[in-house]
Design brief:
The protein has about 260 residues and is α/β, with parallel strands linked by helices.
């Protein structure tokens, strides 16, 4: 499906917010799903690129809806995307993949949403969807200049905790250290759920905390994808039940499934 670009805004340090117009027939999106996007109508770059859905507003009776994509320029494909202007179009497949299991997450008495750097890309949509449950958002980055969506999260009236590796804003240290401290003190009488996205070492640490405290944890994994449909096996990940495909079986997994 070809979608029109409404805006393509530079936020900070090679991070952009892409806004796409979606027609009424576009399917409902689930937090954690992604779009598989063809950047150019040519063979260079040849493969589509996966982009997490950052926010979604479905079309109403009058007018189109909007999908927002938060992305970082890291290679040729994303560099070309950053040059796209409003009114131009991109070809997308989606929504793709399995997102966060809202039926399980919403049963928890307390929800922690843990984002590391660009891991905020799929998590704002989740936080917005769960805003009625008042999740606690832990937002981490290397420096204050790499923090994303802080203002937007606070507009949702959520409890947002900031941490930076260099101490330039909020607590100094890893976001998983903040999570660990909170879990040690947590007196919630009932279930707790963690939802996380970020660098793989961060997600492994989240998984370990979930195991230690017997807490459910869903993690959104990132990997290079070829076809985006599960055919090429380029995004295979090792689990306790053998290899699975991030694009087809994920990108969101129960952390207990993964063989870290």
């Amino acid at each position: 499906m070809k979608l029109e670009i409404l805006a393509n805004t530079l936020l900070k340090e090679k991070r952009y917010l892409l806004e796409l117009s979606v027609p009424k027939e576009f399917p409902q999106c689930v937090p954690g799903q992604f779009l598989h996007m063809r950047i150019e109508d040519s063979c260079d770059p040849l493969l589509r690129r996966p982009f997490s859905i950052h926010d979604f507003k479905q079309a109403e009776k009058k007018g189109n809806g909007v999908i927002k994509i938060l992305y970082e320029v890291v290679g040729k494909g994303s560099a070309l995307l950053s040059q796209k202007q409003p009114s131009s179009v991109v070809d997308v497949l989606g929504p793709c993949g399995h997102g966060f299991d809202l039926s399980k997450i919403e049963k928890a008495k307390k929800i922690y949403i843990v984002a590391g750097g660009m891991g905020m890309a799929p998590l704002y949509f989740l936080a917005k969807t769960l805003s009625g449950k008042k999740p606690i958002v832990l937002l981490g980055a290397r420096t204050k200049d790499q923090l994303l969506a802080e203002r937007e999260l606070k507009k949702l009236k959520l409890d947002v905790s900031i941490s930076t590796d260099d101490g330039s804003k909020g607590t100094k240290g890893k976001v998983t250290e903040v999570l660990s401290d909170l879990l040690k003190k947590d007196k919630t009488d009932g279930s707790i759920m963690i939802c996380a996205c970020g660098p793989k070492p961060m997600l492994a640490a989240v998984s370990e905390l979930g195991r230690r405290y017997n807490i459910g944890a869903f993690v959104s994994m990132e990997e290079f994808m070829g076809c985006g449909l599960g055919a090429c096996l380029g995004c295979a990940i090792r689990t306790i039940d053998g290899y699975k495909r991030i694009c087809h079986d994920g990108p969101v997994f129960d952390s207990k499934e993964l063989a870290w």
